[in-house]
Amino acid sequence: MTTERLSPPLRAGERETLRSCLDFHRATLAMKTEGLSDEDLRRQSSPPSTLSLLGLVRHMAEVERAWFRRVLNGEDIPLVWSAEGDFQVAYDARTASGAEAFDAWQTEVAHARRIEREAASLDVTAYSPRWGEDVSLRVVMLHLIHEYARHNGHADLLREAIDGTVGA
């Protein structure tokens, strides 16, 4: 499978620009994991860090779920991998399956896209328990772009340490 990654538009409205940038970063993470076995995806390839590519995919599934479904959509659902709400559990992918992680991530991305499309505007707000105040859809989208950008940097290093593949 080859991931299609479209560059964000150079001239577009705010919402389309945010949506495109977020999808660009989602596709970047998918590209960083392409062609690897579950063993490679679980490999903690940059000691002493315990991060793995699969742990990053699982973490981003949690991030998508938490911000779009739990915060913006107000769904009373647990995290994907921790009923206790411990985000760190997702990073531990030592026994995880790639199929399960990617299925969860893709499911959460689909929910996030639906919630964003159905929102009346970027000014829609919801209460964030983590931050203790209301946040707008705009801020949530910017936060996710930031999360993906940061973790895609980690993914660059992890992938290069696995098989020498570089580039975004």
Protein described:
By secondary structure, the protein is mainly alpha-helical. Helix content is 55%, strand content 5%. It is built from 5 helices and 2 strands; from the N terminus they run ααααββα. The chain has helices at 14-33, 38-42, 53-72, 98-118, 137-163; strands at 125-128, 133-136. Strands 1-2 form a two-stranded antiparallel ribbon. α3 (53-72) runs parallel beside α4. The chain is globular and about 45 Å long. The relative contact order is 0.18.
Profile the largest sheet: 2 strands, antiparallel
Using the alpha-carbon principal axes, give the shape.
globular
Taken in chain order, the helices and strands follow as HHHHEEH
β-strand number: 2
Throw out a few tags for this protein:
single chain, 168 residues, mainly alpha, two-stranded antiparallel sheet, 2 strands, globular
Please write out the topology.
Blueprint: H1 14-33, H2 38-42, H3 53-72, H4 98-118, E1 125-128, E2 133-136, H5 137-163
Antiparallel strand pairs: 1-2
Brief overview:
The protein has 168 residues and is mostly helical. It has helices spanning 14-33, 38-42, 53-72, 98-118, 137-163; strands at 125-128, 133-136. The protein has a two-stranded antiparallel sheet with strand order 1-2.
